[in-house]
Amino acid sequence: MLSEYQIIRGCKNKRKRAQKALYTKYAGIMRGVCLRYANSLAEAEDIMQEGFIKVFIHIDQYQAKGSFEGWIKRIMINTAITYRKKAKKHQYHFDIDEIQESTIKETDEGIEINEHTDKKTAILNTDFSQEEIMNIINQLPDGYKMVFNLYAIENFKHKEIAELLNIDISTSKSQLARARKLIQKKMMQIIQQKNKQKNSSYGNF
Amino acid sequence: MKDNLEYIDQIMKDGMEGFQVNNVSQSWSNMQKKMQSRNLSPSPARMLYPIAATIIVIVAIFITYFYYHNSTQSNTIIHDSLLKTQPETTATHNKTSNYLSDTPNIKLKQNKLYAYSENADTLFRNAEQFSNENSDDLLILDDYNNDKQQIETSNNNNNEHIPDNSNTDINKLKSDTTKALKNKHSANELINETKIKVPYSDFSSSIKGCAPLEVDFMAKTKNANGYHWNFDDGHHSTLENPTYTFEEPGTYIVKLKADNNLVKGILVRYDTIIVYENPKALFKISPNPVLLPDKPIVCSNLSKNSTKFRWYFGDGEKSTKKNPSHIYSSAGQFDVALVACNNNQCCDSIYKKDAVSAKIVGFIKFPNALYPDLFGPNSGYYTLDNDNYNNKVFHPVHFGVIEYKLTVYERYSGIKVFETSDINIGWDGYDKNQKLCKPGVYPYVAIGKFKNGASFIRKGDITIIHK
Lengths: 205, 467
Known about the structure:
Number of strands of chain A: 0
Oligomer: heterodimer
Strand content of chain B: 25-35%
Shape of chain A: globular
Low-confidence stretches of chain A: 90-116
Mean pLDDT of chain B: 70
Number of helices of chain B: 9
Largest sheet of chain A: none
C-alpha cells in the first residue's frame, strides 16, 4: 500500500503501479458515488472509469490544496453529469415533466395514509442500511436524482445546479422538494415493511 | 402541507457516507484497456524500453568498471613510485589518511551501491566478497583478521619490491605501504587508523496505529555520525532520535540512512508504519431545550469513518445505536458524549458539556379572542394536533396538563357562562342554555396541575366577536 503522497507523485510520473494503487484505493468509493447518478452498476462503472481517465490525465493540475478524494469525487460528479446529458439529451426534460404529475399525487396520498404517525420521529429512529438508502436514490426519477444528489449530498447551491444541468433555479428548487417528499414516502414504506416483518415474526411464535 | 423535510437530506447524506461498491471483477483490466486506447498507459512494446535501458546501463557499468580497474592499476603505480621515492619518514599518519581518501573512487561508489541496496548485514557480506574478489582495497574494509594477515605477509616478505607494470599487485602495494608506515606506526595502530567502521542498526519493526500517529524513532545505530530519516511523505529529519507525527493515513516505509567519516547515506534501517484512518465523532441534538416528561431528544450522528458508536446521555444511560433517541427521567442540564470507532479500533470521542437542558414544564396558554359559530353551538371538542386555529372554540394550547378547570364569567353580573374540567373541551361561545353570548369581554380563570405536580392559575379575559 502506497501513501497518498507516493500515489500522487507516481501518477504524475505516469507510473503504472501508482495508477493501479490509486485505482484500487478509490474505485470502491467512487463507484458508490457514480452509482448515485447512474441507473445501473454497469453504467456507474463506465462513468467511474471515464472519470479515472480524466484523473490520470489531469493529475498535474491537482495542487494539493484540498483533499485528494474530494478532487477525484468532483471529477466523478462532473463526468456523471456530462454522461447523463449525453445519454439522455432528448429525454432529459421530458422525464421531469412526466414524472411530476404522477408522483406528486402518490406522495400526497402517502402522507395522508400515515396521518397518525409522527413521520419525522419514525424516520429518525430507524437505521437505514446503506443498501436501502442507495435503493431509494436509485428509484428516484433521473431529474430528481441529479438535483437531490447535487444539493443534499454534494452541497451545491441551487444556482450552481441550475447552471450545471441547464435548468431554471425554480425547477431545481421544486425538484428538490419533490425528491424529498418522494424519499420520505419511500422511507415510510420501508419502515412499514420492517414493522410488518417484525409483526409476522412475532406471529410465528 | 408544508412539511420541513430538510432532515431527509441529512439522513440520506449520512446513509451514503463512505458507501462503497467493491469486488467488481476485472475492473482494473478493463480500465487498463481503456487507458491503452487513450495512450495513457504504456503498451507492451513500450514496456520493453526500460528493460533495454537496464541492459544498456549494466553493459555500461561493466565497461566503466573494466576501464577503471585498469586505470587504478596504473594509478597504483604512481602511488607506488611515490611511496618509493619518498622517504619512509614522510609516510606519516596524515599520509595514511590521504592515501585512504585517494583510494580509487570506484571502490567507494561500489560500496555505496551495495549500501543502498541492502541493510547492514548484507553490506558487510558484500563488502567482504568484493574485497576478496578484487583484493585491491582492503584498507577501507572492516576486516581485522584480513588486515592482520596482510601485515604478517608483509612482515615475511620483507624484501624490496619493484613495481612491475605488467603485473601490479595491490597486495604488494599494500605491503609496501605497511612497510613504509611501519617505521612510525605499529601494525596495530595502522589497523586502528585504517579500520573504517560501517554504521549499522539491527533494529527494524512495524508500527501500526491510528492517525495522527506520533512515533518516536531511535536510530540505535553504532559507528555513525550523521543521520538522515526519510519519512516517506516528503518530510525528512537529520536528528538521531526524531519524533514524527504521521497525519495522513497510509502505509509509510521510513528509511534511515546513516553517514560515517567516509561513506554517506548508507541505508541501515527500514520501518513500516501503518497509519489507520481515524474516525471523527460529531453529533447534533434536537430539540434543545427538551420538554419533559415525554418528549425525547433525537441525536443526529454526524460522525465520519466510523462503524461503532457509544452514546452517553449524561444521566447514566447509554446507547449503541447510530441515531438514538432518549427520554430523560428528570430535569436538568445533561452532558452528552459520543465515542465513534471504526473497524481498526481507532476511536474518536466528542463531549459536549450541557448539551441538553431538560425542563419538566407543562405549559398552557390562552388566546384572547373568540369568533363563535353563529349558526349554532358546536360541541367545543378540539384536538391540538388537528386544530386549524380559527378561534371558533376557545381553548388553550397546552402541554403536560393533568388537572384542569376552566371557568368563564359574564363581566358585570359575574355569572358563570361556561365551566369545564376536561382539557379536551373548549368554549364555543354559547352559554349554559345554548344561547349565543353577546359580543364583549368575558373574564376567565383556569386552574390545574402539570404532570410534574406544579399547579398553575391563569386569569385573563376573552373577547367575543361576532362575524
